[in-house]
Amino acid sequence: xxxxAELLVRLAKDLIRTRYDxxxxxxxxxxxxxxxxxxxxxxxxVGTYQPSISTCAEIVAIxxxxxxxPDMMIDTIVAVRDKEPYVVAPCGKxxxxxxxxxxxxxxxxxxxxxxxxxxxxxxxLLPSKYRKRECSCK
Length: 138
Ligand SMILES: [Zn+2]
Prior knowledge:
Blueprint: H1 4-19, E1 29-35, E2 40-44, H2 57-68, E3 74-81, E4 86-88, H3 92-101, E5 106-110, E6 117-121, H4 122-125
Parallel strand pairs: 3-5
Antiparallel strand pairs: 1-2, 1-3, 3-4, 5-6
Helix pairs in contact: 2-3
Residues 56, 58, 90-91, 93-94 line the site of zinc ion (ZN).
């Protein structure tokens, strides 16, 4: 029997294999979110020719999940990259989103050999989460 993590990775890999943008400008990453309610949401990154304004697949997946389930909490999230997909780590911005929508979320982090993953609590990936009241900016 496959674990939830294996199924999520399989869904993400299937999505990016079918939607991968060979030119690498648009969709090159897929993400899958499992919510605490047991629902699964999938998304691709929203790339542009200007990489600095592209949106990560994890954020799009969280947005879709949040739209469908306003009070949703992330149970597990994964992102995979490339036509021959492998699990990738979320960037710092995505870690903030994951922590906001799932303070105890598990993130599937890549193994060193690119073939596996390790479930890791978001609190270990972002131990000093942003808090508005503790911020020095306005
Ligand atoms: Zn990101």
